[in-house]
C-alpha cells in the first residue's frame, strides 16, 4: 500500500498536483458512484412498489368481477326456480282448482 501511495504521489507531483488532490478526486468519484447506485436502487424499489399496487388493483378488480358474476348467477337461478314454481302452481290450479279457495257444498 505504501508503494502505491508513493507512486500516486510521484504521479501527482509530475502533473503539478498534491496527493490530497488525487485522493479527494478519487473519493469524490466513489461518492458519485454511491449516489448513482442509491438513486438506482430507489428507482427500482419504486417500480417494485408500483407493480405491487397494480397487482393488488388487478386482484381487487378480479374479485369484484367474480362476486358480480356469482350474484348474477344466483339471481338467474332464483328467477328460473321462481318461474318453474309459478308454472307448476298455475298448472296445479288449472288441473285441481285453487287449494286456497274454500270449497262450497
Described by strand count, sense and barrel closure, the largest sheet is:
none
Ends apart, CA distance between termini: 124 Å
Number of separate helices: 2
General shape: rod-shaped
| Beta strand % | under 5%
Rounded mean pLDDT is 80
Return Rg in Å. Answer: 42 Å
Share of residues in helices: over 70%
**Helix and strand string, N-terminal first?**
HH
> How many beta strands in the DSSP annotation?
0
Which class do the helix and strand fractions yield?
A: mainly alpha
How many structural domains can be distinguished in the coordinates?
A: 1
Give a short overview.
The chain has two helices and no strands. By secondary structure, it is mainly α.
Which short descriptors sum up this protein?
105 residues
Explained architecture:
- With 105 residues, the protein is an all-alpha fold.
- It has one domain.
- Helix content is 87%, strand content 0%.
- The protein contains two helices and no strands.
- The chain has helices spanning 2-14, 19-96.
- It is rod-shaped and about 125 Å long.
Element layout with pairings:
Blueprint: H1 2-14, H2 19-96
